[in-house]
Amino acid sequence: MLRIKKTQLKSVKRATMFVDTYFVSKFGFSPYRGCQHGCAYCDGRAERYYVEGIFDEDIEVRLNAAEILDTTLVKSREFGIVGIGSGVSDAYQPIEGKHKIMPGVIDVLIKHRAPAYVMTKSALALRDLDKWKELNQVAGVTLFVSLTMLNNALGRLFEPGASLPTKRLEMIQKFKEAGISVVVLAMPFMPKITDGLDQVDTLFRKLKDVNVDAVMPGGMTLRPGCQKDHFFNVIEDYDASLLPFYKNLYRENKQSGSPLQSYIIEEAKGIDKLQRSHGLLNIMPHHLYQDRLQIYDEIWVLLTHMLKIYSRQGINISPLKDRGIDTVHGLRSKRRPLTKQGRARAMN
Ligand code: SF4
């Protein structure tokens, strides 16, 4: 049963040193807390996130999200990408259909010409496609869609409140046709359920066909406590014969929720090989943050990604790392004066 709690967003998070290099955002917030999508594996159920009540039934609606974003962007001396959504809520969960917080948020972004990304598993994002298009023209937008399978029956079972996988694929296509970049978060692959190489191959082929900008894959973590218990209950209903396998795989009860290291390595190796064979990038491509960050943030992300790419190729990155760290220290020391120059000059 759905229970709504109307609250206020206290603040928009802002990276105080450099931007995060994974999603590449400077600012971040979620208009909701808790998630009606109720994915069986959702990390948001873990106790460490302190979501009150039942994760997919007690939803906090932050009615003032657009206002707080506006105030933050007015006050900020730096500019950068605004990330909307998180691992513990979805900005386009069904309740957004009623509360319509996102159109106001996009209006604020357009007003400030602030680049943004939104992360979702819901085709409801299509409702605001015209606004996203407008923002994309003035500042740049990336849509992050989480998708690990094309099987609607599995989707219904493991992601019960989210849009069906095929609907998400259609949404990706429509955003791409509208000229908006799309990155697929192919995570978490569920061991022996969605991480079979044939399944992943079919998924990657489809994603290549719709010309996504990147695919960021990842395995599944199950933190001990609510998250793991809930997932095991779902597995028991789905196929109880898988339970001993899962119990063994996550037997170490690591706080991070990681499965056995040997499995992580094997799974990642197979997926990585497929990804390369399809020519799909697994890192944020430069064009998705070029000129959408302060120059020092952009260089920081480029350097970090460069090290990651070389390291994946087995190249010794030690010398480059030292140089890179020196450069980053140099950037840090210049950050304050650069910040004071404000957006206009940093852009030039
Ligand atoms: S859509 Fe994301 S936040 Fe919502 S339940 Fe699923 S994994 Fe969690």
Q: Whole-number radius of gyration?
A: 20 Å
Query: Globular, elongated, flat, extended or rod-shaped: what is the shape?
Result: globular
Largest beta-sheet characterization: 7 strands, mixed
Percent of residues in helices comes to 40-55%
User: How would you write the strand order of the largest sheet?
Assistant: 2-3-6-7-8-9-10
**Ligand species:** iron/sulfur cluster
Helix and strand sequence = EEEEEHEHHEHEHHEHEHHHHH
Overall pLDDT score: 92
End-to-end CA span: 53 Å
Total E-strand runs: 10
**Quaternary class:** single chain
Secondary structure category: alpha/beta
Please tally the helical runs, counting DSSP H or I stretches of 4 or more residues.
12
Low-confidence runs of at least 5 consecutive residues: 342-348
Give the percentage of residues in beta strands: 5-15%
Account of the 3D structure:
It is a single chain. By secondary structure, the chain is α/β, with parallel strands linked by helices. The strands form two sheets. It has a seven-stranded mixed β-sheet with strand order 2-3-6-7-8-9-10. It is globular and about 55 Å long. The C terminus is likely disordered. It binds iron/sulfur cluster.
What would you say about this model in short?
The protein is 45% helix and 13% strand. The chain is built from twelve helices and ten strands.
Topology diagram in text:
Elements: E1 3-7, E2 13-14, E3 27-29, E4 32-33, E5 58-62, H1 65-75, E6 82-84, H2 96-99, H3 101-112, E7 116-120, H4 129-138, E8 141-146, H5 152-158, H6 165-177, E9 181-189, H7 197-209, E10 214-219, H8 226-239, H9 243-249, H10 261-278, H11 295-312, H12 318-347
Parallel strand pairs: 1-5, 3-6, 6-7, 7-8, 8-9, 9-10
Antiparallel strand pairs: 2-3, 4-5
The structure holds iron/sulfur cluster.
